[in-house]
Amino acid sequence: MSRRFVIRHFAPVLKATTVCFLLQLFNGVVSAHIQQAGINFGDTIAYQGKPVICPGGKLLLTLANLPTNAAVKWFNAASLRPVGYLPNYEVSTAGIYFATILSNGIMHTYPSLTVTAVNNPIAGFTFLTQGNCASAPVQFNDASQGKELTYLWNFGDPNAHKQNVSTVKDPSHQFIGSAGNGSQTFVVTLTVTNAGGCSATYSQKITLLQTPDTDLGGPAEQTFNNQAYFVSCSNLPTEFTFINRSKTNNTGYNIFWGDGSPQTFVKDLTSIKHIYRIGSFIMFYTVYGSNGCSKVQKYRIFVGSSPTVPFQPKVKLTACTGMPVSININNNITSSQGTIYTATFSDGTVNMYTTLPDTLMHTFKTNSISQVVNTNHRTYINAYSLIISAINPCGIASDTLAPIYVSDFPAAKLINIGYDIVCVNSKIRFKNNGGAAYSITEGISRPNKWVWKITPDTGFRLSDSSMGSDSGSKYVSKWTSGTKNLNVVFTKAGEYKLTLLTGSEQCGIDSDSRKLCVNAFPEAAFEMNTDNGCNSQVVTIKNTSNLPLCDSAQYQWAITYDNMGCTEFSENMSFTNGTTATSAEPQFVFSGPGRYTLSLINSFPKSGCSSTAFTRQIIIRSKPLVTLNLPDYIYTDQQLSPEAIIKNCFQTTPPEYKWTFAGASITTSSLPGPDSVYYRDQGRYTIILDVTNSCGTTEVSKTINLIKRPTLYIPNTFTPNNDGINDNWNITGISNEIVTVDVFNRYGIVIYHRSGSYQPWNGTDGDKKLPVGVYYYVIKTVKNNRLYKGFLTIIY
């Protein structure tokens, strides 16, 4: 059954989430087949913006990396029926969308995409004017409705250029419009967009009075630094003639000259003259229109000469990275006021000045290696340059200072790979982490040098490295560099100081030091107050391990147990008096007999080294384990040979025995197993055994009955029919004796055998009931070596 058939078959009852799960499961099953078929699916439903639908909007969905000639089916999970068959599908409603494709006989499903519906915001604003003229700023205030809005204002004021739009919430705008004596209407539009990408637009008209034309002519008009200038390239005061070029009907003119002269107001203006001294000035030109509006226009005036920027003196400079360098400028520069100076370093730094200082300070962050300067028909390698340019409305001038050789400042950055505290014979790697550094002399670069020093200068050896030498000189040129990394094995305990010297022929010497403590290797040792004892033995420890020079010792105790074959015992040990397995001198209580091995490891954690384990053993003994092996009764004609099972675990000497036989032929014995103990009279007798070793005495006892031997009776018939009467073959007189019983059938085959204490027989051969008949028995008693034979009949 195809997968498409399954989905359609269950469509009435499956939810969208179930369908998505089935699609994902199917993708996993066919993935291997897809790879074998050589098909590479992008598995992406692409779209522009966000996967949302705005009211009345649409969203175009596209299948990325769609194979050529693939058959496409689009689905909306809400209906489970195809909704499109083209590579692109335009969505107009929210929902869960997915697509299946069939290519080269392989079906593949693109992961589903959830498209959500988002409401449009509501755009709106208010505004407040400060007058009716376009020259007065207008304040706009947002009144839109919606969350997480972004704003785009268009003020409908094309002459405002870049200022015609704004993205702030509540902007202010001063309209420019076109010059005139009437009014002008502007259409202001606000577009707001919410987080879902849905937007709304609102527009209002604003009508303002036009402002008059402020066009003014004058000598040497030009634009400098994006500003309008009237220019006189002279070192003398200059008379400027200004011409009114306004095309609107005006009622008056006011000029603020900007040089300290009184303002000038006239009703009519064709032209007007004014003398400016050397310098740069700003003139404010106000024109009053016939509609009551006015406009102020700024014009800049420059009187002066072309700039000059010679360096004094012209010398090469050397500098060090990270350190400011001072560059002297010609103190006699006579460039006019209003000149703009730019200092451009070839490392990318640019500074601008209105007044050039006598001294420029600059810090180079990188050396000048691989930098090339071409100036004055010369080329400098491994050098920076400084170009100072001066510009004013009368011209431009520049000069170059080169070469500037920048060497790396020697930065000694010592790090050690490992510990600052170590043990002897530990290899430590020290690293010069200052990075690559170079000195530059006359354009030639050389690596900075470094030298290692260790004090005291004995008690260590180097491994695959060298320390270099400063030859006892402060001149770096006489140094011999060591290796960048220094591998040291300290062979003697003590405190050391390691110093890294890094030197530059141009930038001096830097150093970095580390203190290092070298400890003797940790050794573990301890003494015990005893190495043996009995149950509940307290053992105290005296720790004799060595201590570090510059570290704190840590201890770890471990205890192993061996019952030495006495399986009746198990480990029973505990710490006491507040001590633990990490105490320097713990105390132990041993309550379980056996052999304990105490192990101590001494470690110096900051040094990263540990000792081998030091071990001692202690034997914990116990009182004897005694078990009496006596019958419950004996006959008056029997002698008693008492036996006991003794376990004298962990002892080095045999135990002592004391038997007590009250009323017997002997009353005491010190033998492990006395023989020929007789009792004359019937009755109950208690036998006591005390066993003593170095840990104490164990006493056990047992009471036995002395009875007269019963008369032997062997029944010749019994009825094993389970009626509760005579169901077993019971022989009296040997019930407690050790016997051997054999029963034979008429063919001489043994059908019942018993060896040991006598037990009644139920007339079966295994689990099988024997038939009615006559059987033959042989009974032999072990005690008296008596033999009994006869016939036995089984009836039911």
Overview of the molecule:
- The protein is mainly beta and 796 residues long.
- The chain folds into eight domains: 3-117, Sandwich (Immunoglobulin-like), CATH 2.60.40.10; 125-209, Immunoglobulins (Immunoglobulin-like, Sandwich), CATH 2.60.40.10; 216-303, Sandwich (Immunoglobulin-like); 317-407, Immunoglobulin-like (Sandwich); 414-507; 526-620, Immunoglobulin-like (Sandwich); 625-707, Immunoglobulin-like; 717-794, Immunoglobulin-like (Sandwich), CATH 2.60.40.
- It is 4% helix and 49% strand.
- It is built from two helices and 66 strands.
- A six-stranded mixed β-sheet has the order 17-18-24-23-20-21, with no helix packed on it.
- Strand 56 (656-661) and strand 57 (668-669) form a beta hairpin.
- It is elongated.
* CATH topology (level 3) name of the largest domain: Immunoglobulin-like
CATH superfamily of the largest domain: Immunoglobulins
What is the overall pLDDT average? Answer: 88
Shape: elongated
Structure summary, number of beta strands: 66
Largest sheet: 6 strands, mixed
Helical content class: under 10%
Give the class-level CATH name of the largest domain. Answer: Mainly Beta
Strand order of the largest sheet: 17-18-24-23-20-21
List unreliable stretches of 5+ residues.
1-41
Q: Number of helical runs?
A: 2
Structural class: mainly beta
What number of structural domains do the residues give?
Answer: 8
Q: Assign the CATH architecture of the largest domain.
A: Sandwich
Radius of gyration, taken over Cα atoms and rounded to an integer in Å: 57 Å
Beta-strand proportion: over 45%
Beginning-to-end CA distance, first to last residue: 74 Å
